[in-house]
Amino acid sequence: MTLLRQHTGEVTGIHPSGTGHSSDVTALVECEKGPFFVKAFRNRPGGRRDSLVREELINPHVVPLSPAVLWRAEDEAWLAIGFEVIKGRPADFTPGSPDLPKVIDLLNRIGALPLPEVARDWPETRWNRYAADEAEAALFQGESLLHTDINESNLMFGTGRTWAVDWAWPTRGAGFIDAALLVFQLIGAGHTAEAAETLAAGCTAWAEADPRAIDAFAAASRRMYRRRADRYPDESWLEAMAGAALRWTEHRKVVANGH
């Protein structure tokens, strides 16, 4: 806590967050100069630290859709950033939820953000290895800024405000990808694949996408989630996403064998 003292002043309370599992520490810190929402990682080279660096770098370009980063603290052991605190709740993706139109609106607002120069060096590649071939992988490329972690916890709803939080791995890619990730989540929340696609059709990037690109992405995602679920059988959310991907590819009549 000494590391944060110059930014927080006297700390009066620390409330760990129930979300943000990719971070070593996520907590609401009540303090003399705050409060702040703090994310911190052990200061070791690699993906986890790099994701926090990316979140800090992208933040000026996604405010006010995201809470603002207010300070950064680093020493040999830790890297931490402090965000403004927002008052909101996670989105509800279940069928019939009144949040759903606002979810679509929020994804359209994300999709309308210009691609900042810093993100040009962050091409989306995570699905490439699961594509059937290089031609399919090329369909996932583009010039849109992507959030890539669309889920209920990362879309927050307050009084008259909505936010997309946890920009831990923004990338540059095909604009439909965030909407496609929403489809998986909607199916996992109880929607039929058809109903999920009907909702996603409200996203401009989805409506403008080549159906072949969506087919290829659905198939690649099915392969990816199946492999990860098999590798990490204790992670129930991976099995749920593998099931959602199966239902989606069946609806689209997409073959996703191999890999």
Describe the protein in words:
With 259 residues, the protein is α+β, with helices and mostly antiparallel strands. It folds into 2 domains: 2-83, 2-Layer Sandwich (Phosphorylase Kinase, domain 1), CATH 3.30.200; 89-252, Aminoglycoside phosphotransferase (APH), C-terminal lobe (Aminoglycoside 3'-phosphotransferase, Chain: A, domain 2). It has 9 helices and 10 strands. A 5-stranded antiparallel β-sheet has the order 1-2-3-5-4. Strands 6-8-9 form a 3-stranded antiparallel β-sheet, covered by helices on one side. Helix 5 (177-188) crosses helix 9 and helix 8 (211-231) packs antiparallel against helix 9. The longest helix is centred in the C-terminal third of the chain and has 21 residues, at 211-231. It is globular. The mean pLDDT is 94.
What features would you highlight for this structure?
259 residues, alpha+beta, Phosphorylase Kinase, domain 1, Aminoglycoside 3'-phosphotransferase, Chain: A, domain 2, five-stranded antiparallel beta sheet, three-stranded antiparallel beta sheet, 10 strands, 38% helix, globular
